[in-house]
Design goal:
This protein is of the alpha/beta class. It folds into two domains: 182 residues, 3-Layer(aba) Sandwich (Rossmann fold); 102 residues, Orthogonal Bundle (DNA polymerase, domain 1). The chain has twelve helices and seven strands. The mean pLDDT is 95.
């Protein structure tokens, strides 16, 4: 399977699909969410986004389906281009797909040896190899602290800079060997996962792209429309939670002259939805998944 969707039933239910409505799947991937949306449409339409060319192999032959081969940071522009504003619902399954993780040459996984890449859009220039070999020690330290929440980020950055003076670090194997002195032996996988997360976020500018996309959803969603977001790591989930609660990323609710909250959405599920034990057993990627649903005010 290209990618097994997480919280599939719950996320589709969260959209409250109108059979004649317009919906957006901004993380198409293997198309599983899109296929379920289409099953519930009659005269409605579905616009799907994905910047990864590998997703092209999963396109759906359906006149109600339109695919946009772009990063979802361009959500508003391409919905306007396709005369699809306003929309009735938007679904986002964030993070890296199981296909990307399991494709060794993409460089997303600590399980394989490959070139340090981590690009979701392979047409972009910046790779993890470029970051490791050319970013300053200060830049590396900030990435590891901010995007990986790595306690010894300063030591890690210093170690990388020292090792790359001897030779360029090009592969995952070289990288793991280079930083081995920074890794606590009984927590190697957890530590490396944080390091890879930090590099991946920097390569793909994930948090800034997420913020821009969330802001745009409020501009293209009709009143009563649903925004359904599945997040994984704490950094992206914090941004989603704050935005849905307050309309900004600091989580501070502003009020108008009459004391009413100035927020674009109201939360449908006050308590975050998480996978059950069976889904976690069947799909380990779902372990950290958190589903939030909101309705446009």
């Amino acid at each position: 399977m290209y990618h097994k969707a997480v919280l599939l039933k719950e996320s589709i239910e969260g959209l409250e699909i109108n059979s004649d409505g317009t919906y957006v799947d901004i993380t198409f991937g293997g198309g599983e969410h899109s296929q379920e949306i289409l099953k519930k449409l009659n005269n409605g339409r579905l616009i799907a986004f994905d910047q990864d060319k590998d997703a092209l192999q999963n396109l759906i032959d359906d006149k109600r389906f339109t695919f946009v081969e772009q990063n979802f940071i361009f959500l508003k522009n391409f919905l306007k281009l396709n005369n699809a504003v306003p929309v009735d619902g938007i679904l986002a399954d964030l993070g890296v797909s199981s296909h990307q993780i399991d494709t060794s040459e993409r460089g997303f996984s600590i399980r394989f040896d490959a070139e340090l890449d981590m690009r979701m859009d392979k047409s972009k220039d910046l790779t993890a190899k470029e970051i490791i070999n050319n970013y300053s020690e200060e830049q590396l330290r900030d990435i590891f602290y901010s995007y990986g929440e790595i306690n010894n980020g300063a030591r890690l950055a210093n170690t990388i800079v020292d090792k790359r003076k001897i030779e360029n670090i090009k592969t995952i194997k070289q990288f793991k060997e280079a930083i081995s002195s920074c890794v606590q032996k009984d927590k190697e996988n957890k530590y490396l996962a944080k390091v890879f997360q930090a590099l991946r976020i920097e390569v793909n500018d994930e948090l800034n792209v997420l913020k821009e996309m969330l802001n745009q959803t409020a501009d293209v969603m009709k009143k009563g429309g649903r925004l359904v977001v599945i997040s994984y790591h704490s950094l992206e989930d914090r941004l989603v939670k704050n935005f849905l609660k307050s309309g900004n990323f600091e989580g501070i609710i502003e009020k108008d002259f009459y004391g009413n909250p100035k927020v674009p959405y109201k939360l449908i599920n006050r308590k975050v939805i998480v996978p059950n034990e069976k889904e976690i057993k069947d799909n380990s990627r779902s372990r950290s998944a958190k589903l939030r649903i909101a309705e446009k005010i």
